[in-house]
Amino acid sequence: MHKEIKSLPQYLQPKILSAVAYIHQVYPNLDKAVERINTLQKHLSEKEIMWVMSLLTFEKLLDERKDNTMTRTKTIIVISFVVYLFAMFWIGGIR
Question: Helix (H, G, I), strand (E, B), or coil: what is residue 72?
Fold first, then answer.
């Protein structure tokens, strides 16, 4: 089991980072990523899954932020919303 490090925020705990690495290993194969997300749902709380999904999109958001055009901003918003809906769907929040 992963030991919690009290000096780190919840989203940087070893358990969360390990889950991110587990999913990221199969990038860009979305089918395998979805399989791994389904597996993780058995071991992580709803909030932990949200942290994992957020961290998985973080790099993309930073890349998009470099190009500060309105089109890029809209793209970031849409991507973030899609990831949120995807996460909610997989954790059973949307039926």
Answer: helix
